[in-house]
Amino acid sequence: MLDSIHHVAIICSNYARSKAFYTQVLGLTIIAETYREHRDSYKLDLALPDGSQIELFSFPNPPKRVNNPEAQGLRHLAFRVDSVQTMAEQLQAQGINVEPIRVDELTGKTFTFFNDPDGLPLELYEK
């Protein structure tokens, strides 16, 4: 039986820029950072407060992500937050473009989207 999501893996185009975004802007905690010489690749394990993780990978010359029109596959990564408004303001204060806050017509919860440095769509969803 499935219990929860353990991790989500993300391949970035610029490791230093993405590492700074996920640790300094989003405030995720570094669990481990590994350089794999035979692959010329970094793997950065990041923790969220609930124990779930993001694995940030770098590879030489990864192909660009297809996103418009929306392609088959993973659509976006959503983070649960206490206050979408507060988190959106914190991101905007750091120069991150955040879409207008909307209300989910099915749940009545507020949400919004923003992008990581590679354009990966990220969502804030209120508890």
UniProtKB/TrEMBL annotation:
Pfam families: Glyoxalase (PF00903)
Transmembrane segments: none
UniProt keyword annotations, A-Z: Metal-binding
Domain of life: Bacteria
Domain spans labelled VOC: 4-127
InterPro entries per the UniProt record, alphabetical: Fosfomycin_Res_Enzymes, Glyas_Bleomycin-R_OHBP_Dase, Glyas_Fos-R_dOase_dom, VOC_core, YwkD-like_dom
NCBIfam families: PRK11478.1
Protein name as it appears in the record: VOC family protein
Organism: Vibrio zhugei
